[in-house]
UniProtKB/TrEMBL annotation:
Molecular function GO labels: chorismate mutase activity
Taxon lineage: Archaea, Methanobacteriati, Methanobacteriota, Methanomada group, Methanobacteria
Domain (Chorismate mutase) ranges: 4-95
Pfam families xrefs: CM_2
Gene Ontology BP term (one): salicylic acid biosynthetic process
Stretches that traverse the bilayer: none
Superkingdom classification of source: Archaea
Coiled coil: 3-30
UniProtKB keywords: Coiled coil, Isomerase
Protein name: Chorismate mutase, type II
Length: 97
């Protein structure tokens, strides 16, 4: 591979990453909106915002996917915890807490 080809590959790959980033961010927005629906359901059911059992299930699923795809489990768990916290914040807004 020469420099010209390497630069082309670099630019094409970066474009693909930009597309993926946009999709990921859109999915995060969708996930956050679902948190609002969950909050409404929890209010009717008289449930707390925090659900440690469900949160652990989500983390375990993420670790399993990370392991299967040979990516860093700890970092994936951090990402999932951030997403969970974002949902929790949305639920607090909806529930007025």
């Amino acid at each position: 591979m020469d420099k010209s080809e390497a630069k082309k590959i670099l630019n094409e790959t970066r474009e693909q990453i930009d597309i993926l980033d946009k999709k990921i961010l859109k999915l995060i927005c969708e996930r956050t909106l679902l948190g609002k629906k969950i909050a409404k359901a929890k209010m009717i059911l008289g449930m707390d915002i925090e659900d440690p059992i469900r949160e652990k299930e989500i983390e375990n699923k993420a670790r399993k996917i990370a392991r299967k795809n040979k990516i860093n489990e700890k970092k994936i768990t951090k990402i999932v915890k951030i997403l969970t916290e974002m949902n929790r914040e949305e639920q607090k807004k909806v529930m007025g807490r």
